[in-house]
Amino acid sequence: MSGYAFFNRASKAYxxxxxxxxxxxxxxxxGGGGLAxxxxxxxxxxxxxxxxxxxxxKKVVVLGTGWAGTxxxxxxxxxxxxxxxxxxxxxxxxxxxxxxVTNGTVEARSIVEPxxxxxxxxxxxxxxxxxxxxxxxxEQKKVYCRSSQESNFDKEEFTLDYDYLVVAMGARPxxxxxxxxxxxAHFLKEIEDAQRIRNSVINCFERASLPSVSEEEKKKxxxxxVVGGGPTGVExxxxxxxxxxxxxxxxxxxxxNLVKITLLEAGDHILNMFDxxxxxxxxxxFKRDGIDLKVGSMVTKxxxxxxxxxxxATGEVVSVPYxxxxxxxxxxxxxxxxxxxxxxxxxxxxxxxTDEWLRVQGCENIYALGDCATINQRKxxxxxxxxxxxxxxxxxxxxxxxxxxxxxxxxxxxYPQIQIYMKKKQLKNFTNLLSSAxxxxxxxxxxFKKALAEIDTQMKNLPATAQVAAQQGEYLAxxxxxxxxxxxNPEGPIRFRGEGRHRFHxxxxxxxxxxxxxxxxxxxxxxxxxxxxIGHSTQWLWYSVYASKQVSWRTRYLxxxxxxxxxxxxxxxxxx
Length: 576
Fold this sequence. Notes:
The protein is 34% helix and 22% strand. By secondary structure, it is of the alpha/beta class.
């Protein structure tokens, strides 16, 4: 067969089968390596949903196009819904790469995917509205929205009815009410933030290059302060250091020695959510790189030219001049979510509280996921009497360990903190847990309570990360895809305070690890199984994983191309 005939036949086969699975393999070897496989979902099995034309479709309104909202939309397949998406941004942004955008390692358009591209692939009615929701009316089942487009005219307002509402609006930067932060500091939460930071860095270098500026003033202009020692702040400081030493030092040789990068952290260590080995390595590396790391330093005020800090150890207040401040100290609740929380009686909470099925507590058809919500896991001690009663079918008031066999699976499913506790205490099974309370032969209700007394101490809120939000979106979409089936045949655990079963298994987060790029082509990773990896090979693993996690082949190609361009040509320093 000739080469032309082969490619002609292959082309026909491809176009006649557009749903062929596509794989991306990024394989790297160098003192270790990483392999990442990604299936874009084109070849995944799609259920054969059937719905009559005369049956009215349920209207689902999705607020937000971040990790949670986009994951929900990508995995929703049931055509029995009419979907309306509302967001002030008509794209999804791969936020873990925002620090790379600030210095030109990756271009902004390379990490965004138009949301209409995602909706256009759906086999059901899905519409997008570029607007922001400013009010949620639970009683009337309406959301009130206004256009987010910049215009000289009044912003258009409209309302949407819903049968199901999915709140995935994310969060805003948390300033802790520190004076001057909003007016004078940069945030790193959105694409626009990264672009502003990039322009500001170049602007500082150009100003410091002017002949009329004194050397003392140049030092102030070229002092870059990063507030917050979490993953975002650490990665940005590392990216900025690489940008300065690898690219800008060549373009501004006369002022390269005047540059100073300071990282402020109020706690005792940076990356305190990571393993201590990673924390110590990162701190040592920053010191070697010349990054001024100040822990135990709390920012009290930010003015136009100075930042005030209070040293926790001495109580001393220090004022430091700066050229640019980047604020990365956590997240806060958006105003519309705060108003909604007041309406439903959650005013005293930090974020929306949901049950284990991501349904907002007190609201039947409203779900919340991502950074704007947290799961309020039910305590096992609140239901201990009901659990005992379900197992005590004979009503004797005394049970043996084998009497719990029929409900052990349901207990562990409904209360995941039990499994966490048993793992921590190295207990093999539920029977061993009961035996620890002296229940080798029989248990009464008091001994049963004693056995479970410390279980609820293992309850922890999930971190506000992209990984959590994406898994929640995928879980909720799966629930919506099987809503009718599970209404008829519930698959969840037993209702201990009622009859029957819950419709679905509750959400379970599976942690796949976390990365911390540290600059100089080095990174640290904390992976499942207590595996810690640090160094150059980990950076290549980071490349492969982040390439595979892109939401489309278009962005995957663009990101890899940007990395290759940076390796060959360096970073672009144009202020555009």
